[in-house]
Amino acid sequence: MNELESGVTRRASRMSRPVEPPRQASAEGITLTFYWWLHPAPILIAFFVFVFVPTAGLGGDAFAALWGGYKYFDYRMLAIVTLGFSAYLCAFWASTRLGGRGRGGVALTLSPMSVGTVRNWYRIVYLATLLGYIFWVAVAALQGASLAQVQAVLSLEQGAISSLKSVSVPVAGLTTLTQLGPLAAVLWVILRRLGESGRASIGFLVGIAALRSFLYGERLALLEIAVPLLVMMALTARSQSARRWAKRAPALAVPALVAFFSLFEYTRSWQFAKESHGGNFSGYMVDRLLGYYATAANNSGLMYEHVSRVPGVPYFSAPALWDFPLTPVLAGSATVDGVAPGMWWFSQLVGFANPNFTNVGSVLVTAGELGLAGMVVYWTMLGLIAGVIFLRMKSGDLGCLALYATGFVGLLELVRFNYWSLGRFTPCLVACVVLAVQLRGQAGASPHDDEMGDSRPLRGGLSSSRRED
């Protein structure tokens, strides 16, 4: 009887204990700090002051003596560029102000579901990028590329890069996967800040992009992955010293640009130009770098004058649209004055400019193809879209954060071309939009308060608190 009573007592005691709720995975957080140089205004003003104004003021004879070809870019075209930049910045300003103004930074807390989504996306885009490079190597081999041609590039032989590129043409839909590398860099930084990713994986992608840049003379391929990587590292910097360095990024960018440009030019053009320049590499580099941007501005003037006089579709304002595989089937192949756009542009460079500098520009391209009114509408729409993305990024939208970081290189290249209209940006654009939609569709984590301020719930399993620098 005593044993029976004792057993009943123990069971009753266990039943009377409070039931502990099931353990939930803890949320993880990162802190974003926003800097003045992320806004497009300082970048566009710098281009206006240091590139467009000097080019417009340079005399035709001086321009021809320095870089060859006719001088097209004048103060009339400077006014058109001013109009385009103003339309973009005003639209950007309006969209950010209508949505409210964020200050300082934001402390994000990611729910376990959001962390898992980011982790899965990183694996997918990383593997897709590697698969794209594998396809590229395989296609190049089938087209006749050989190790001897690679060796010729590494030996800095004249014409070796052109020879290799001619037998390793990218295939749309397969090698396009390599363009997901910038998104992989962005997601890697997020996971790195959460302690979920090592250095080796992204280092491998950067190494492949660097090799591609060297073998194909394609500096942009390395910039596309390096710029988002550096932007994200600055945005998510943890220590005060790292943030102070990030604030000084523009001052560091100028010597970095010179070093980057010098490295590639030394391995490309200097080997064949040093005799004509008396072995003065520094003088050659100054002339080459200034010409890189001055001829881009002048080429855009050439494009404005010539493309408006010939029949054809507005290809150069939206090449991604016309290069899409289904477009020739639905609307026919794009032509300018009866020939392929690339062939037409090269003929203009040969006849009126310097074919060694091939950049088409941006604002004047749209003015020539769409007219002044169409240009204003075009850049106003781009400014509105960019402003909305910027505002949502500052509110803690990870999809918009990824989109702004991967597209930031477009701001840096706006003198040379409109990167956002190119087909090489389309994979990142589409992937970031899908990622943003998926994150917003997920169940949100419970909002919480922390020591940095009052938090508010966000879509996509996030909560954020505003932090003041």
What can you tell me about this protein's structure?
This protein is 65% helix and 5% strand. By secondary structure, the protein is mostly helical. It has one domain (28-255, 288-467). It has a four-stranded antiparallel sheet with strand order 1-2-4-3. A hairpin with a 3-residue loop joins strand 3 and strand 4 (462-467). Helix 8 packs across helix 19. The termini are far apart. Residues 14-26 and 443-460 have low confidence and may be disordered.
Key descriptive features of the protein:
globular; four-stranded antiparallel beta sheet; 469 residues; 65% helix; 5% strand; single chain
Topology (SSEs and partners):
Elements (H helix, E strand, L loop, with lengths): L1 H15 L11 E6 L6 H18 L2 H8 L7 H24 L6 E6 L1 H32 L3 H8 L5 H7 L14 H13 L5 H18 L2 H17 L4 H8 L1 H19 L2 H4 L7 H27 L11 H5 L3 H5 L9 H12 L10 H32 L3 H15 L13 H16 L13 E4 L3 E6 L2
Antiparallel strand pairs: 1-2, 2-4, 3-4
Helix pairs in contact: 2-4, 2-14, 4-18, 5-8, 6-7, 8-10, 8-19, 9-10, 10-19, 14-17, 14-18, 18-19, 19-20
